[in-house]
Amino acid sequence: MDGPERLLLAANALLPADRADWGQAMTAELANLSGRSQRWRFAFGCTRASLLAPGHERSGRPLVVAVTAAAAVAAGLVVVALVRYPGLIVGPRTRLELAVFAVVLMAYPVATAVLVRRLDEPSQRSALIGMPGAIAVAALWVALGVTAAARTPQYFGVGLSVSIVVLPLSVGALGAWRGRGAPAGRRSAALCALCAGLLVFLAWVGEAVFADGRPYDAGLLRDFRTSGARDLATYALSDNLGAAMGLLVLVPLLAFGFGAIGAGVTARLSPHR
Q1: What are the structural domain ranges in the chain?
Q2: pLDDT of residue 251
Q3: In the chain, which residues have pLDDT < 50?
Q4: What's the CA gap between 143 and 150, in Å, rounded?
Q5: Whole-structure pTM over 0.70, yes or no?
Q6: Residue 115: what pLDDT?
Q7: pLDDT score at 126
């Protein structure tokens, strides 16, 4: 697979679900072109057409706006933390981490917009399952963090960990059942994953910023003594921000992965749907 073919494959992924035949026709046409420059021109033209093709953005626009607003609030919380605690910026490494964070955060509304373009009318109904699923998944992750900090009995953490796996599986399975196919289930899982990732970040960082990183557990106090940080609040907030930025990637990856498994299994067990 050469560069033009990879670009065309990405362009086909941007097409609305009811225009998949356009993508097939463009792929067949590219196979008949042999000149390298000619193939690149054709691939770029197809990409432009895919981006401008009418889709289902109007019905899904509120979701894109909501995700974009949530991403803006997340960026604002980080800015507030940096202004209140200048000691969080310790050198080039911090700036690189902030740049990576900005790229990941911008990927959320972009991915949501692309996903909305792929939703046809039946898929929209099944994909809505992902919204309450996202709230539940985010609540489980936050609860897991609270139980870990509070040193609750081990079975609480085990139960929450199992639920974090089972809930996205259920979202993908139910989406595939209602949407009559694995693609619908995967889209439900993708919406659940994107919204859950942002909700976890907002809850985690919001609580840390406005509570100055509290509560300070024994492990945090022990690590602070050898960290060289200027004050305990800065160290605690830095620790929380690092964890939240990691969860911004980990939560959607795990949620979508388990949801896609649930969608695939459901589609295989119920091929008539």
Answers
A1: 3-51, 59-269
A2: 92
A3: 56
A4: 10
A5: yes
A6: 80
A7: 63
